[in-house]
Design goal:
9 strands, 7-stranded antiparallel beta sheet, Protein Transport Mog1p, Chain A, 4 helices, alpha+beta, 249 residues, two-stranded antiparallel sheet, globular
């Protein structure tokens, strides 16, 4: 991606008992007080590229930045940032947010992952058929084994921003749920969102995987072996069935 130093060393973020590597393409959020402030910050990040950008795209990028900035004020957010650059001749951007959810129990990692699969798997309520929404596909879910433990990843296409009655910008949101070691009593959630649907598989999916694989808990004991708990089948599906365009292991 043009606009960032791809060969630079990834930043190691250490927050409390969690460490993870932030790709050099991402810059920590500078909080925005309001939408106008977010707009000015977006223009500053874009630099000369902002001049040729249609107003609707500026509006979409501002909304994405404002949403990411708002996440900084939410409880449990450890880190949040953006990347802005070009892929080919097109502007591309994404947000990355890392959050810690306190569960207040010492459930083994694999057991917690199995519970997350059960909770996050989309279901239709009995007697309540879901309406047809071709513009909003059903969320996809996969379970993988990462170096720090089992992780459950969901991928969902959201409506995004309605720029006008005829024009909207869809948003892809991927969330990685990584149960922490029992002593830490929590779940680490890594979320990557981007309006650049076309470059998800080739650019952003591998980028998210890099971050997930880099997570480590230096003060905790080794992750509970996956074989010690009744987790779902851990074997990743063939690449053609993998919505994330890559594998974690």
């Amino acid at each position: 991606m043009t606009g960032s130093t791809v060969e630079s060393v990834e930043t190691v973020e250490s927050v409390e008992t969690v460490e993870f590597d932030v790709p050099p393409e991402f810059v920590p959020f500078e909080p925005a007080d309001d939408v106008d402030d977010a707009y000015e910050l977006v223009l500053a990040r874009l630099g000369p590229a902002a001049e040729g950008l249609p107003p609707v795209r500026r509006q979409a990028l501002t909304a994405l930045y404002a949403a990411g900035s708002a996440a900084l004020t939410e409880a449990g957010v450890l880190w949040s940032g953006t990347c802005v650059g070009t892929i080919g001749d097109r502007l591309s951007t994404a947000t990355l947010t890392v959050t810690a959810l306190d569960t207040e129990d010492e459930t083994p990692q694999a057991t917690a992952a199995a519970g997350l699969v059960a909770i996050l798997t989309p279901r239709e309520l009995p007697g309540q058929p879901q309406p047809s929404q071709p513009s909003q596909p059903t969320p996809q879910l996969r379970r993988f084994d990462a170096p720090a433990g089992p992780v459950v990843i969901t991928l969902e296409q959201q409506p995004g921003w309605q720029l006008s009655a005829e024009q909207s910008v869809p948003l892809l949101s991927a969330k990685a749920y990584l149960p922490m070691p029992p002593a830490l009593r929590g779940v680490l959630i890594l979320e990557l969102s981007t309006p650049d649907v076309d470059n998800w598989s080739e650019v952003y999916a591998p980028l998210l995987v890099r971050v997930v694989r880099s997570v480590r808990f230096p003060t905790a004991a080794d992750p509970t072996p996956a074989a010690a708990a009744p987790a779902p089948a851990a074997a990743p599906p063939p690449p053609t069935d993998d919505p994330f365009g890559t594998r974690l292991n």
